[in-house]
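note to self — DONT lose this again. spent like an hour looking for the file last time. sequence + predicted structure for the chain T wanted, 291 res
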Amino acid sequence: METETGLEPGSGSLEAARFWRNPALPGVDLLKARYVTHRFTRHAHAGYAIGVILTGIEEFDYRGARHRAGAGSVVLVDPDQAHNGHAGEPDGWAYRMLYPSVEVLSGIAEELLAGRGTPYFPEPVVSSARGAALLRRAHDAAERGDSLASSTLARTAFGTLLRLHAARRPPETRSVGNDLAVRLAREILHERLIDPPTIEDLALAVKAKPFGLIRAFKAVTGLPPHAYLNTLRVSRARGLLDAGVPAAQVAADVGFTDQAHLTRHFKRVVGVPPAAYQRAGTYKTEAENST
């Protein structure tokens, strides 16, 4: 029987999350959650974030605007696009999310929409009764361990949303010079995860001015350099946790000051603590309040 533990101590309403993976859905992470006070920090995923709101309202900032997703809405967030998330009403929201990799969705798109390239969703909140129903049924089947049903329904759900809501990606208009400076700055942050430079030293290394680099970095990635670094650290932490490295060691290996620091940032990006995430390697886990 499934049990759920509140993520935030002392909250008046049950706030719980469960993150897991199912071997029938390779390349797809799953999250079932109800949040009230929990807030996702601004972050980006390497893959897509696709889900259905069951109750309440989620608010999130994405592509320069604030969006509200109510019950029955489908949320569609593209890879590498910065966004946050929090309750849009006092009682919070409940949802079921699937996080397919770029490879998973691109493969389905190639089969259904040959020639469009990497899938792009122009609208982050859409009304799709069929898509919402399929997402929920796929999620339920994955939770029950029904491999054939979950894989069939998830593929059908993704295909339906691609046909109805995907479009050609618009051309990007950015300064080549800014792109180069940001690319070099990102490379430095990837190399210096544990001992990152100051913004002054980072700007000097890429031959830019500090404020100019901050603006360009945010324009390209959606995040300022320090937030990008923390998101990168969480991404690296996920890889180490997947490999079975203890959370306390992971914190030091990715540059967080201690395990509590890792836990705080990890929950703000992933939605569950590191220990709960690590147990997802067994394809079933419940979020808990400790690591």
